[in-house]
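Today's session is about reading a structure prediction critically. Students often jump straight to the picture, but the first step is always the sequence itself: look for stretches that repeat, for charged clusters, for runs of hydrophobic residues. Only then move on to the predicted structure, which in these notes is written as discrete structure tokens rather than atom positions. Here is the chain we will use throughout the hour.
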Amino acid sequence: MIKKFVYWFLRKYRHTTASRWLILAIDIFTLILAFTVTDLLRLRMMAHIDWPSLAVRLGAFIALASACYMIVGTHRSIIRHSGLYDIYKVVISNGIATVVLILFNLLNNNHPIIQNRYTPAYSEILMTFALQIVAMTTVRLILQRVYNDYVRRRRPSCNVLIYGAGAAGVIAQNALLQDRTREYRIVSFLDDDRKKTDTALNGIRVILPQNGLNADYIKKHQIEVLLIAIPSIKLEQKQAIMNLGLDLGLTVKAVPHISKWINDSFSANQIKDIQIEDLLERETIKLDNINIVREVVDKVVLVTGAAGSIGSEICRQLIQYAPKQVVMLDQAESPMYDLQFELRNNEPYCHHTERMEFVIANVKDRQRMAEIFSHYKPQIVFHAAAYKHVPFMEENPYEAILVNVFGTKNLADLSIQNGTQKFVMISTDKAVNPTNVMGATKRMAEIYIQSRSTDTTHFVTTRFGNVLGSNGSVIPLFKKQLAAGGPLTVTHRDIIRYFMTIPEACNLVLEAGAMGEGGDIFVFDMGKPVKIYDLAKKMIQLSGLKEIEIKEVGLRPGEKLYEELLANKEADIPTYHPKIMRAQVRRYPIEDIDRAFAELWDLMPTLDSMTLVAKMKQIVPEFKSNNSIYCQLDQPSDPS
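Below is the predicted structure for this chain, in token form.
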């Protein structure tokens, strides 16, 4: 009956913090016990007990210790969260009391009455406070253990491996143990340092990664979570660990860099599950910011497609380089409103609202574009506006040509007429040996602006692959399909793509724009290509929904298995930036380009897709359709 009452009482008040005065009373009680034990040991060697002297000494011990505990604040700690700092305060407070009593002894050596009767012996002082340190520490550890094992509400539990037996690993362990939503049991620390092998950290064994990250060990200890607790780890090594953990069926989490800790402290809710973007992330690019500043400072910059994934990030970065004005142009009203709201209300952009202009317009409207150029007189143009969705453009070649080709032509011609200093176009790897209408229109835009460079207006093209999280990219699609319960759809098991982050791509666009001297086509180091089927498998592993299937639906019209950054007859030349190369691309006579574009424009009123695409194939001979109705235009004519 008593046991049930005690258990009920503890459960009822499990979230109640003990009064600091109760803690102080417990500490004084342990001091009395320590003093009693010490004097029992001493009195066994004495024939006569001086009870008044004993009472005075005990009172002195209690008064002095109480003062020290209150000054240092040992009673202000929350017992169930006691840590090393609390033990440190216990040692300091008792140490101060010890030193004060010893000094009291030394000062009263010449006083016969006090020295003989009421002054505690040195052995009594040292033994009492040594025992008190042990007692106070033990009480705190016992109460903490009782709370964790019997008082706290039982939570779902799981076994964890912590990768990293350093300071971050210890901090992560403490954070997990204090988590009130789930109970974590740390099975082992993993560390590459062989000197730490078979040692213990906070009572937990440290082993080599290869000994812990294997199927037998995982199964034997029923490991569910792998926590990477090395904030400064190299990205390539971190990704290898994450991939290994996922392949072993573990939930992989990571401790963020210390710069991302909230108020310089760390808690369990800051430990985040890794995302697919973490597996595709690349090392941070080092930019020549001085070069970019020199290019854009105090200048009027026009960004088309400003509300899109790439255009909006270019705007975010440009604003911080102190331009005179950034004119953000897009035909999409709602995304433009979202961008305007973000930049006007969020740090650090909100301090530069006087530099921002937001314009709704379509690049294919020559008259509207002429009015904008005449009004703002942009000195630099970043042209990101384009139709990019391959299947849609395959079905709507007229619109693809009107926007991607003649919209670009409008901007290029107006840049020359208005004395724009530099024009930077955002192209795509799909422009290389294009197999679809979208890629061919981007290649035609490249051809046109490459031929337009003058002494006063320099035209530059930047060419790269897919960006993570961009509108219409595969990762947002997979996330939607996972949320709907699957299946994940891939067009072909062997299809591969290049990926880079949006900030990385835009950093390189700015850098390439700064280094371009006219007629240049820059290609970016996209890293290693990613197999989309493997990407889908990783996302399923990350979701924890192992029953989700992957379904092949066949290549879409115009789609090819792999993308290229350079055509067969092109080569690349290194630049001063290791991730930017200058492509050696075939140049066309300007007269031929003007004639071909004029002929294409004359065909536009026909709205006949076959006629328009046939003309595109004449302008871009390497344009060979794939899985498309336009494949018939590539068939050689019958000699009969």
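Discussion point for the tutorial: The radius of gyration is 36 Å.
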